[in-house]
Design brief:
The chain is mostly helical. The chain contains 7 helices and 2 strands; from the N terminus they run αααααββαα. Strands 1-2 form a two-stranded antiparallel sheet. It starts with a helix and ends with a helix.
Length: about 280
Amino acid sequence: ALAWLDVWRPERALELARASLREAELQVQATEIAYTTARATQADVLAARIMLGLLRDEVALREDEGQIARSKLSRWIGPDAAQRPLPADLPPWSPPAPLHEMLASLRRHPLLDAEAKRLVVAEDEVELARQAYKPDWRAGVAYGYRPDFSDYMSVNVAVDLPVFAASRQDRNLGAKLAEKTQAEQSREDVLRQEEADLRLHWLGWQRLQARIAQFDSEILPQSQQRIEAAVTAWQAGQGSLAAVLDARRMALDNQMKRLNLVTEAARYRLALQYFAGDSL
């Protein structure tokens, strides 16, 4: 899922760059016409052309990023499937469960389940080591057939006495107790790390939702209004071409920033689905 997201982001950035490129091409044409009528200077024409060249380089950069990301995606789904067109929008995700519920269910995560099984094995080995302190009683019955002699039957009883415990059982039990302690600490360490990561991603997703909403309600609309105002002022001879180019450049930057926020929020949401064990 993360590899898929690495493909989606540069393709959406490529769409933004191409849209800005088309606007820059029109801006160059308008500037050149204005230059022939003495309404623009040669510096204005050069500035518009430089802006156009930079956007062309931006398009080429995003194309390269997209191809590299698709190559990495092919590791997971194959080269043919990795070249399929991607949707313009991300899948609709519902908000994650409350943090306390996700933390409670985290203990059932397969990663922690594996650690719990290691601890159970270590506890069983400790119990086996303790059993070595107890005498081991054994009994056996044997029947012997001898053609030239009388048959016989024997009964054997044996007991192992745990002597020299300090040099044998104590060492063995101590080693098993140490392994159990290590398994307990390992499970606790993994649990704390996973809980910290879960909190980080849950809070990150919540925080980015507010930032994305601000871009949608304030920053992007105002960026577009600034472009329109700058173009109107320049066409009326009351503004400069530099103001128009600066407004367009800032609008593209803001759109790219929003795209980065959306992508980062998607990464957080995918991580939360992994912690919850949900299907992607």
